[in-house]
Amino acid sequence: MGAMDWIAMVLLIVGGINWGLVGLFDVDLVAMLFGEGSALGRVVYVLVGLSALYSIYTSSKMSRAR
């Protein structure tokens, strides 16, 4: 796995933990750390979304390679 794959994986884990906390305890960890609606919090959300799209792309690329 390359650096981009690791970054995407870490961001997906962060996003997954955050959504788990939102679902279980109504606690938004990203908003708590960076402020509700802050620019930095929005950047984190965008990066998590982009990492999900990147993971979709790499998984489809891997499935075509078989």
UniProtKB/TrEMBL annotation:
Q: Which UniProt keywords apply?
A: Membrane, Transmembrane, Transmembrane helix
What domain of life does the native source organism fall in? Bacteria
Which regions span the lipid bilayer?
6-27, 39-57
Name of the protein in its database record = DUF378 domain-containing protein
Q: Which organism is it from?
A: Noviherbaspirillum aridicola
